[in-house]
């Protein structure tokens, strides 16, 4: 089965379990709204590619790691969109969860998606409990404090912010989780895969800053110009558009150079290039500058 | 070391890790505010007692299970107190997290505490990964959808609510987690311990409804009369004060009768009686009715 189909099947199965008989129906509907139809599924696609490059010895654990990653990503979007953060009305081209279901169900949907991620890992891990437990730890640390997504978001409530630390936590941590969890699901060490994830995350953040600064809301499927409007740190403000585009190219070269030696190394390099083309608005940016 | 000290040490260690170097300081302070000084630590105390009754063969795993439970409980209080839910200004006799730190950090503190709980389990579990993984699953299911705390809270956004299902999910699920996680930490089956947790949870909820209906805010350390003010289902509205007190006695008898045969059965019965005396405002209620 192609990676994309395996990832969607794993996410769908997790969602079906969370909506199980006896669940409060509106919260169940809010979970579905938050997760389907998905975005580019970039993080699980990277995770899957790394696991396959390492031989993918326990496919059910690979799929669980991918689903868990995406559920956490969706949870972070739901909470990020809340009125007390970005107050975003749209997400992926439709109303954000709090607009469609109200704020209480949006808070709960985010919480429940985080928990569904750990449920997925625990269920898939009985055959390889040590790998599953390490996946659990990697995901918890990528998402929580002191250096995960929550920490990154927390920096937005501080008066003095280190731009690099902020992006590393808010965006980079889940890309590091994507590469390291791919390796862990395949029974490999996580450490050699940290740099690849970190560099992809960095590239993604610069690309996102460029999109936020340059695109309009219709093309983006969510409000744009948010960073400037909210006075938040971003690469375009720091480096200008041309500087940010040059940084993108550097980072991507480094990402590909960092890939550890593994059976599927060549295909993985190719996948990173493809993902890069998809997430980086390079041609758009070059037209504009 | 007494149970209480082991539990506090494990919670303190988890908090210190979450606040680690490089964390955003205000979010770190919000976590500490949410967790310390603690309340009665009833759930981890029950979990510890069950693990000890089963021999407590891996004390570090028992302590991790207790800390994880309490972190989740604290997370649920932080999110419950948010303006979009209870809008509670006080908790444990001091300002609630969103009052002290603002709403964004309260949302993030709840999220980060959930994640810290799973980090604790993953770190403690390397020696007994299968037990740790089962603890992860038990905690995720007790907290998430379709039947955990989030589901319980989600029922408050529905127009038709089954009172028993609502209480089972919102309050009972974490007591079931307390007893079953105690057993799992000791390498035992969870199933025989479900009933004890369910009955303690039921008793606790009835006691809480009585306190909410009868006590004043100073004695309670948080706003009272919330259920009636918000039109929420509760046992006093359903049964009256005397009926609710009689139900308490019934439930407690059933809880003690349900305790499975185990090495520390007698001490465990005694502990349940002690906890019951602590959480049940029986003498207070008898003075009032």
UniProtKB/TrEMBL annotation, chains A, B:
Pfam family name, one: polyprenyl_synt
GO biological process: carotenoid biosynthetic process; chlorophyll biosynthetic process; photosynthesis
Pathway: Isoprenoid biosynthesis; geranylgeranyl diphosphate biosynthesis; geranylgeranyl diphosphate from farnesyl diphosphate and isopentenyl diphosphate: step 1/1
Key words, A-Z: Carotenoid biosynthesis, Chlorophyll biosynthesis, Isoprene biosynthesis, Magnesium, Metal-binding, Photosynthesis, Transferase
Substrates-to-products reaction catalysed: isopentenyl diphosphate + (2E,6E)-farnesyl diphosphate = (2E,6E,10E)-geranylgeranyl diphosphate + diphosphate
Keyword Transmembrane helix carried by entry: no
GO molecular function terms attached to this record: geranylgeranyl diphosphate synthase activity; metal ion binding
InterPro entries: Isoprenoid_synthase_dom_sf (IPR008949), Polyprenyl_synt (IPR000092), Polyprenyl_synt_CS (IPR033749)
Domain of life of the organism encoding this protein: Bacteria
PROSITE patterns associated with the record: POLYPRENYL_SYNTHASE_1 (PS00723), POLYPRENYL_SYNTHASE_2 (PS00444)
Co-factor(s): Mg(2+)
Top enzyme category: transferase
EC number assigned by the record: 2.5.1.29
Keyword Transferase on entry: yes
Family: Belongs to the FPP/GGPP synthase family.
Physiological role: Catalyzes the condensation of farnesyl diphosphate (FPP) and isopentenyl diphosphate (IPP) to yield geranylgeranyl diphosphate (GGPP) needed for biosynthesis of carotenoids and diterpenes.
Protein name: Geranylgeranyl diphosphate synthase
Lineage, broadest ranks: Bacteria, Pseudomonadati, Pseudomonadota, Alphaproteobacteria, Rhodobacterales
């Amino acid at each position: 089965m192609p990676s994309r189909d395996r990832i969607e099947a794993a996410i769908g199965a997790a969602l079906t379990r969370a909506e199980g008989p006896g669940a409060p129906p509106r919260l169940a509907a809010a979970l579905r709204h938050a997760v389907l139809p998905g975005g580019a599924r970039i993080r699980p696609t990277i995770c899957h590619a790394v696991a396959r490059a390492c031989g993918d010895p326990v496919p059910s654990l690979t799929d669980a790691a991918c689903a868990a990653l995406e559920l956490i990503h969706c949870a972070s979007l739901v909470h990020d969109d809340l009125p007390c953060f970005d107050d975003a009305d749209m997400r992926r081209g439709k109303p954000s969860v709090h607009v469609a279901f109200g704020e209480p169900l949006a808070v709960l949907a985010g919480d429940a998606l985080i928990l569904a991620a750990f449920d997925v890992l625990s269920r898939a891990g009985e055959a390889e409990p040590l790998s599953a437990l390490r996946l659990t730890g990697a995901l918890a640390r990528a998402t929580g404090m002191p250096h995960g997504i929550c920490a990154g978001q927390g920096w937005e409530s501080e008066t003095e912010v280190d731009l690099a630390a902020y992006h590393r936590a808010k965006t980079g941590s889940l890309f590091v989780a994507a590469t390291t969890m791919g390796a862990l699901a395949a029974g490999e060490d996580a450490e050699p895969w940290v740099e690849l994830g970190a560099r992809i995350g960095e590239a993604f953040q610069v690309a996102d800053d460029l999109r936020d600064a340059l695109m309009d809301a219709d093309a983006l499927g969510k409000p744009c110009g948010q960073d400037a409007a909210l006075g938040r740190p971003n690469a375009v403000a720091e480096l200008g558009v041309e500087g940010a585009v040059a940084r993108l190219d550097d980072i991507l070269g480094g990402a590909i150079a960092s890939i550890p030696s593994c059976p599927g190394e060549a295909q993985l390099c190719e996948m990173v290039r493809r993902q890069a083309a998809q997430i980086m608005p390079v041609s758009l940016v070059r037209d504009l500058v």
